[in-house]
């Protein structure tokens, strides 16, 4: 009979085994594994209790064997549960007298309760296989459970019945698809490296994720890497570790490739929040009711390890001299001024925004210009559930962009990944794009050029503005739910206009209300869903930002690209 070292999770099992607790020989567990999860039936002195861990809460498993005890500690009672230790099956430091094989199963279960007290709790289940007299035979049993668990996880990822997946030509497992992590060491308060090593790597190890790590060395490094390197080797996804700015670089770097459309169709993008704002990371957790506030790094890393994804709207942005692509927001006026001018207080983290906003209210400014937009009739327009990804001719837009010499790109390396390989530009099989011929590809515009008047069905607002701000996901920052009704792929740009006539009382109510989403109902605030808009500033006294990045002050127009990208998310 086998043993189990833990308390803890489906009908119609494909594997079933009986275990007993090491310290309680009269406690028996009947463990059943199916495509739904792990079901454990505990029997103690005639009392039966059933506990379940759903498959979607399991991130990985490992086979181990017992460790050889140190000679100086030989006097300790070897039957004590606390002395049981295991090592990797390939280790030389194992106990030859113990023929048992151990299977570690790692799960992160949602502990339900009040909204603010919800969190994911780590559970490690250890199954001890020792039905046979030889270690090799017991390890075969443990490996059979491990392979079956990973098989079910991969079937869930493919969203198909296990048998149909088995008969298909898709033979690669989740662990075989390599993921590229791009880390910005200067994000937020500058602790991204430490966060990755201490909080992210352990989860990647438990999930047996195959990955490479690149640490950026200067501005635009991430953009240059994804533009020039072979991204097809990272079909598992690209994940940024930092703030929203580095994801902005990645998206625009991908759009500067001739194969942009195929990559966006296949690649998953992800973000592990280490910045000051972290708007997209919070929006993803908010969309699927994940307990982000308790541990943002844990929740966001679990999204990546589990491998599920969801569509995400992007926005095409055109200025007088460039084309950009945005995933978060576009701003002109108050909020953009706060974002850019508070950079000098970066060491304070998210608190920098609050402090600078207070100062801007004292010396409030307005900016003259014209804002035009194409409103969406939400009652008659096609719902997001029936929207389809738009396909474009990749030759549709070939506007040139300035090139920046990045020098030799040889800083790929791995941290904590047994499967990862060193990679440099010289070793890539991909023929890099010429550095002196950087172009923006991506989908072409479907609205009139900036030098042409807007169509008659657009609304036009002229005058002095305190701010104009547009968002596509719900959150601009962790504590700012700017577009409460937004969905990740609703095909809407949520546009906010505040003209100079607003009182300071109403403006204060607006700013305070952004933390709860009540700001949309404040007097003198226009908040409307649109599919495209145009800003034409007449005074150069304010900042224009795209995803929090400062751009050249000029006329600007934007249009929605429904479901253009795929992002890692814990899809329900």
From TrEMBL:
Provide the DAGKc domain boundaries. Answer: 174-321
A Pfam entry, by short name = DAGK_cat
- GO CC terms, sorted: cytoplasm; membrane
GO aspect biological process, one term: sphingosine biosynthetic process
Say which domain of life the source belongs to.
Answer: Eukaryota
Task: Tell me the keywords, alphabetical order.
Answer: ATP-binding, Kinase, Nucleotide-binding, Transferase
Annotated region (Disordered) at 375-403
One GO molecular function term of this record is: ATP binding
PANTHER family registered for this protein in UniProt: LD11247P-RELATED, SPHINGOSINE KINASE
Q: What is this protein called?
A: DAGKc domain-containing protein
Q: Which organism is it from?
A: Apolygus lucorum
């Amino acid at each position: 009979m086998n043993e189990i070292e833990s308390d803890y999770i489906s009908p119609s099992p494909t594997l079933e085994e009986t275990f007993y607790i090491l310290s309680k020989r009269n406690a028996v567990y009947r463990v059943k594994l199916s495509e739904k999860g792990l079901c454990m039936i505990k029997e103690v002195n005639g009392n039966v209790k059933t506990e379940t861990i759903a498959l979607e809460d399991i991130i990985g498993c490992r086979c181990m064997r017992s460790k050889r005890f140190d000679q100086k500690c030989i006097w300790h009672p070897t039957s004590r549960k606390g002395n049981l230790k295991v090592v990797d099956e390939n280790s030389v430091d194992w106990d030859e007298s113990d023929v048992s094989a151990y299977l570690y199963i790692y799960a992160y279960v949602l502990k339900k309760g009040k909204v603010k007290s919800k969190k994911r709790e780590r559970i490690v289940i250890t199954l001890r296989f020792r039905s046979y007299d030889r270690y090799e035979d017991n390890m075969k049993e443990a490996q059979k459970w491990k392979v079956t668990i990973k098989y079910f996880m991969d079937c869930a990822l493919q969203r198909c019945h296990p048998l149909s997946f088995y008969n298909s030509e898709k033979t690669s497992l989740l662990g075989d698809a390599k993921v590229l992590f791009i880390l910005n060491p200067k994000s937020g308060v500058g602790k991204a490296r430490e966060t990755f090593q201490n909080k992210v790597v352990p989860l990647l190890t438990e999930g047996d994720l195959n990955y490479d790590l690149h640490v950026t060395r200067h501005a635009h490094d991430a953009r240059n890497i994804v533009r020039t390197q072979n991204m097809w080797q990272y079909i598992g996804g690209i994940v940024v570790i930092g703030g929203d700015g580095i994801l902005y670089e990645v998206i625009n770097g991908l759009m500067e490739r001739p194969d942009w459309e195929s990559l966006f169709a296949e690649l998953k993008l992800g973000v592990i929040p280490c910045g000051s704002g972290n708007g997209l990371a919070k929006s993803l957790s908010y969309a699927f009711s994940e307990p982000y506030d308790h541990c943002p790094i844990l929740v966001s890393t679990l999204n990546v390890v589990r491998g599920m994804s969801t569509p995400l709207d992007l926005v095409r942005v055109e200025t007088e001299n460039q084309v950009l692509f945005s995933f978060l927001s576009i701003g002109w006026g108050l909020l953009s001024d706060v974002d850019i001018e508070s950079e000098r207080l970066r060491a304070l983290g998210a608190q920098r925004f609050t402090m600078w906003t207070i100062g801007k209210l004292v010396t409030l400014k307005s900016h003259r210009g014209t804002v035009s937009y194409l409103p969406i009739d939400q009652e008659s327009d096609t719902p997001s559930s029936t929207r389809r990804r738009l396909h474009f001719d990749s030759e549709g837009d070939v506007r040139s962009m300035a090139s920046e010499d990045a020098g030799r790109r040889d800083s790929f390396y791995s941290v904590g990944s047994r499967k990862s390989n060193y990679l440099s530009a010289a070793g890539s099989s991909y023929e890099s794009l010429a550095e002196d011929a950087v172009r923006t590809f991506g989908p072409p515009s479907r609205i009139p050029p900036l030098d042409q008047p807007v169509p008659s069905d657009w609304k036009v607002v002229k005058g002095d503005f305190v701010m104009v701000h547009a968002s596509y996901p719900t959150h601009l920052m962790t504590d700012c739910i700017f577009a409460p009704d937004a969905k990740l792929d609703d095909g809407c740009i949520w546009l906010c206009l505040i003209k100079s006539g607003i009182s300071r009382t109403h403006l204060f109510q607006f700013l305070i209300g952004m933390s709860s989403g009540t700001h949309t109902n404040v007097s003198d605030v226009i908040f409307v869903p649109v599919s495209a808009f145009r800003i034409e500033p007449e005074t150069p006294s304010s900042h224009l930002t795209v995803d929090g990045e400062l751009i050249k002050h000029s006329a600007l127009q934007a249009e929605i690209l429904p479901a253009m990208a795929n992002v890692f998310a814990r899809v329900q």
